[in-house]
Protein 1
Amino acid sequence: MATSNDIRKGLCIEYSNDIFKVIEFLHVKPGKGPAFVRTKLKSVTNGKVIDNTFSAGHKIDEVKVITRKFQYLYDDENGFHFMNNDDFSQLYLNKEMIENSQFMKAGEEVTIILKEADETPLSAELPQSVYLEVVEADPGVKGNTATNALKNAIVETGARVMVPLFIEPGDKIKVSTEDGSYLERVK
């Protein structure tokens, strides 16, 4: 069992009958009163983010997790199917367990977080960015080039992305999976 002094970014803890991952933390030692740790926790099962404060020395239940690379195969109405590249076993995840799943395309490698004790899947993490082909883009309006004008585009996975006016259907672009923003055009 760990204490609040062991809190660090990426640590998985059991809290309030769920498993949370520490996204941000700050150790605070005010001039008056006891020290505490202010945290931002993200549920690995449903993706909700909560703010929580732990007093100094508070006992926390650390959850041991392991990560493995899986290949995304396909999705159905309930969730996603993945294959382990080492032993070719398949794994199923509910749609709620993956954030920004609209940027996943078949054959892409994702990192799945598993609980070490019984290897139950907790969540999946996409790469920081993905390369996608633009299948449909609004026409660029001439005269809108004085500023960083953007237009709607639909990529091969069906996701909508705001892109610069010079992007045309058939172009490959790099997209951030964190916020769905356009990063660059790929040659």
Note: The chain has a mean pLDDT of 85.
Protein 2
Amino acid sequence: MSRIGRLPIDIPAGVTVSVNGREVNVKGPKGELALTIAQPLEVSVEENQVLVTRPDDERESRSLHGLTRTLINNNIIGVTQGYTKGLEVVGTGYRVAQKGSSVEFALGFSHPVLIDPPAGITLTVEGNNKLTVSGIDKQAVGEAAANIRKIRKPEPYKGKGVRYAGEVVRRKAGKSGK
């Protein structure tokens, strides 16, 4: 039995979880999220807890058991607390500025880079080199942060670029003179 999959998920106050066939809808104070469950698994709501069960010990059902439980738990955490991902802009002349709901980056290119947030994602700028990506969907927050980081990844010689908050960039030694 999956150690993670067999754990029940407690439903906090103010959150409603409804199961309609293969669709699990989670509604909370911050919004509403939906998840489609893979075929062999079953989800039930009993006594303020969500239970994920699998019918057999086939390889596919075992692999999906813990994943499904974690995805439902992430949705419950998302509609109650939300998710945030921090980004830092490092480099001389590199900066970020808020332009309405979108964000403008100066990253050493010949032009400024303008990023519009996807649906359900909020971009906030603190200072001129810190950016916070926030939302209720963990996967969407991570993907939006990864797409912003992809514009100018931290390079290994000087460490310049867009990096996650707290990310350690492995530095390389430059050319050594004779």
Note: The two ends are 62 Å apart (CA to CA).
Protein 3
Amino acid sequence: MSTRKRYWLMKSEPDDFSIDDLARVGTEPWTGVRNYQARNFMRDGMRVGDGVLFYHSNADVPGIYGIAEVASTAYPDPSQFKKSSKYYDEKATEETPRWFLVDVGYVRTLAHPIPLAEIREHSAALGEEFALIRKGARLSVLPVTAAQWKLLLSLEKKR
């Protein structure tokens, strides 16, 4: 198994949970992911210390607003077991959980958010495998290569 640092982009609606909320609490479980591919990224791909681009989706200006890091190994999402939760899954049991999460820890808020429109201007350099700007891609957890991470964060300094 590789111990190389990996990078990710995780989307959150700022009305539900923003980079400011993460800054306030420090570390937060990334609950409510109900897409198998995104779940698999968290369960099988993420390691403590991996870098996370914190992306505000469904916002006035969608884009990258901060940096976080993976703060735990994957564990079952407790919201799947709570009947009162909007993320309840009647097919999930404690013995055979279906949904997993990681804790995400705050690193910093960007000095200047990087809007999606600006990210799209760099689509050629980011490559066609960069799922955020691919048509029809709606995952809330996406892998980011080290080169994409470096390019995206360089956009913050150009403002």
Note: Strands lie at 7-12, 27-29, 51-56, 63-70, 75-76, 100-101, 103-115, 141-144.
